[in-house]
């Protein structure tokens, strides 16, 4: 494990493996750097891969009050650590954070957005998110995780099992951070059209055909809004894709000039 200091003085823990062009992997909700390690293992033969603990998770520090742009600063600090330029991959709310970082001007060579969970314009998700935040404020972390997972499309029994997994409640408070990331560029977590227009790098948008329909729909809309994007649909895949299936598609895209 290595560390880097973000702009506000927060320590960000990361791991680095492989050799080649830089690649930063950004995890989604309720995940630390361990979650993306299998994908990093698959890609390390071709890339200098960085996995890290987003602030408030794992071995990274935190600061208050939370601001989504501090997480952009965290990625910027990692970018400097790997040589000032790299490709970036984000999964789920991590993809929304990557979109925010790319739209803010960080020097990525390529951008991969894997199912950022933007909602449709005609559906108000703010009340649902407020329910999760209320449970967190009341100290009911496990229930907050359960509700969040069900809102994300996970069946009830699977959500209850996942919420009971070791370490899950320790990450529960960072759900508030993910909601803030989703709301930062577009209130209500809708597709952030103005932000996407600022992403000029070659971009791959990944979606599994068995994922919740709102995520698949969002992926199609994102491709239409981005200046330089292509869509990768993974037949039969859901929101979490085995690394041996995902890595070849990411590798092929990142190899393009």
Taken in chain order, the helices and strands follow as: EEEHEHEHEHHHHHHEHEH
CATH class annotation of the largest domain: Alpha Beta
Radius of gyration of CA atoms, rounded to a whole number: 17 Å
Number of strands: 8
CATH topology assignment of the largest domain: Rossmann fold
Helicity level, as a percent range? Answer: 40-55%
* Tally of DSSP helical segments: 11
Q: First CA to last CA: what distance? A: 31 Å
CATH architectural designation of the largest domain: 3-Layer(aba) Sandwich
Q: Indicate the structural class.
A: alpha/beta
- Residue share in β-strands: 15-25%
The profile of the biggest β sheet is: 8 strands, mixed
Description:
The structure is a single chain. The protein folds into two domains: 2-120 and 186-254, Rossmann fold (3-Layer(aba) Sandwich), CATH 3.40.50; 126-171, no CATH class. Strands 1-2-4-3-5-6-7-8 form an eight-stranded mixed beta sheet, sandwiched between helices. The protein contains eleven helices and eight strands. With 257 residues, it is of the alpha/beta class. The mean pLDDT is 94. Helix 2 packs across helix 3 (93-103). 42% of the residues lie in helices and 18% in strands. 44% of the residues are buried.
């Amino acid at each position: 494990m290595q560390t880097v200091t973000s702009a506000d003085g927060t320590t960000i823990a990361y791991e680095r493996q492989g050799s080649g062009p830089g690649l930063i992997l950004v995890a989604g909700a309720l995940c630390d750097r361990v979650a993306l390690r299998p994908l990093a293992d698959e890609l390390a033969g071709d890339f200098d891969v960085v996995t890290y603990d987003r602030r408030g998770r794992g071995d990274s520090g935190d600061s208050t009050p939370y601001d989504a742009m501090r997480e952009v600063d965290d990625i910027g600090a990692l970018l400097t650590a790997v040589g000032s330029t790299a490709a970036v991959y984000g999964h789920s709310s991590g993809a929304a954070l990557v979109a925010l970082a790319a739209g803010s001007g960080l020097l990525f060579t390529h951008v991969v957005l894997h199912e950022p969970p933007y909602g449709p314009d005609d559906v108000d998700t703010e009340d649902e998110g407020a329910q999760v935040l209320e449970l967190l404020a009341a100290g009911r972390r496990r229930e907050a995780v359960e509700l969040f997972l069900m809102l994300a499309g996970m069946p009830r029994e699977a959500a209850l099992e996942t919420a009971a997994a070791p370490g899950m409640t320790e990450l529960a408070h960072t759900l508030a951070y993910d909601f803030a990331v989703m709301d930062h560029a577009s209130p209500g977590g809708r597709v952030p059209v103005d932000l996407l227009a600022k992403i000029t790098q070659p971009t791959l948008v990944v979606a599994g055909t068995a994922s919740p329909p709102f995520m698949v729909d969002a992926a199609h809309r994102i491709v239409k809004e981005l200046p330089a994007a292509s869509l990768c649909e993974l037949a039969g895949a859901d929101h979490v894709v085995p690394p041996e299936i995902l890595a070849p598609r990411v590798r092929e895209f990142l190899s393009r000039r």
